[in-house]
Design brief:
135 residues, alpha/beta, five-stranded parallel β-sheet, 20% strand
Length: 135
């Protein structure tokens, strides 16, 4: 069983671009209230780690090369309904927005978001979820 420090936001990061993953993970790890519990490169890994680690928050770009990102989000929402999901993607259109909203995903960000705004949005997503951290 993995131990985390109480009160930290446990984050699973999922993106298929290595540089994006590394930069985001490094940035998140610099925050005292975040605990990056996993970093994944494809949809299968993401679903497996989400089920195994049960993070507080999944930060994911669902537009992955494997083409399974949306299906993975649907499975995460069905199997882990209390997990907060924040979508971070370079490709957002009306159809995708509707699909995300239908899945109950309210936090949708463009990859061009400023780091300070991203961090604020992650904290806000957890704060508005009213769920205990580490659960």
């Amino acid at each position: 069983m993995e131990q985390t420090q109480a009160g930290k936001i446990r984050i699973l990061l999922a993106d298929d671009h290595p540089q994006v993953r590394e930069q985001l993970a490094a940035r998140l790890r610099r925050e005292s209230d975040f605990d990056v519990v996993g970093v994944t490169a494809n949809s299968v890994q993401t679903l497996q780690r989400a089920q195994m680690k049960r993070p507080d928050l999944l930060l994911m770009d669902p537009i992955m090369r494997d083409g399974l990102g949306l299906a993975t989000l649907r499975q995460v929402r069905a199997n882990l309904p209390n997990m907060v999901v924040v979508v971070l993607t370079a490709f957002i259109d009306t159809t995708l927005n509707i699909q995300f909203r239908e899945m109950g995903i309210e936090h949708i960000l463009a990859k061009g978001v400023l780091p300070s705004e991203l961090l604020s949005e992650l904290r806000a997503a957890i704060n508005t979820s009213h769920r205990p951290l580490g659960g």
